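hiii, so i know i said id send this last week but things got crazy w the move. better late than never?? heres the sequnce for the chain we talked about at the cafe, plus the structure i predicted for it. fair warning i was half asleep when i ran it
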Amino acid sequence: MKNKLIIILISLLSTQLYALEKIECRDSDSLYVEEKVFISNIGKLNCEFYQDVIDTLRDINDFNSVDAVVNIILSDRSFSASFDLGSNLEIPQQFIRQNKAGDYHFVSNEATVGIVAHEYGHAILSSFLAQELPSFNNLFQLQKKISKLKIRAFGIRLLIKDPKTSVSERISLQNELLTTAKKMKELKSKRNNENYERFFNLMLPYQELLADVITVYNYNDKDFLVKIVDHPKYSKLEKEVVVARSFNQVDVELSKENEQSPHAKLYLVRQYIGSNLWPTNSHQKREYIDKILRAIRTSLEEELYGPLPSLNYKAQSKRLISKLKSMR
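okay and structure toks below
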């Protein structure tokens, strides 16, 4: 047990290898952001990029009615961006996409901000499901506590590196960091005992769908996802998943390897939305997102609590489309 806690503490302390600072940019405050921190190994905080992030969250909330407040953990560069299904949105200033062959592709600033919009879409669906499904709300609240502890760990690190902090205070803070690691471990264990993996796996394709909807609605471009997630050296299989994220009527026939890809398996729903639920103004965006959220909720309820057999990707898509057609 002691060794496991030491490993977690090392993980929390791994930011010793990086510069760590609070984000203090002009106009950096936002109704949609609670805590914000910047981690860097070679770069500096780009306040212009951070402002683009804040502007994007504001633009999305002009047509989104779900209250989704997040913490932002900003890094200088990364191969990934993520939302932890609690409160933490982890995003890089420079996103680097890598294909399975190991080739790097440096993503433009516009595309990186678009990826932020996608990740914030995950926060929107998580907040909505927490309001609508008691079983998910239990997991959501646990994950929010884990998110808060991770942010607290960053705060402790900032205090430890502060030259004004005395030796005795540093020792106390190191002990608090160890306690924080222990609490995180306990909460993750409790979360995983509450069917987290099952719910997460069921929810994942719906998460990717809703996050994609938020993104293309925000940019008013049915092919925006295709543009920002592509890689010039993707293989045919990798490109297949990219094309499946279009909201236009495109020819897609998923290979067996991609049938269960959470980013691709509901491609028929994306095409339906692009043809039948494509908004021309903010009011329609809000109305259509509400329909999509309610259809996702009822689908998840049936999968969680009903005796439904496992559906292949086409049947699952057709079922969700049927629900969208019935929503008023």
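btw The chain has eleven helices and six strands. thought thatd interest u
miss u guys!!
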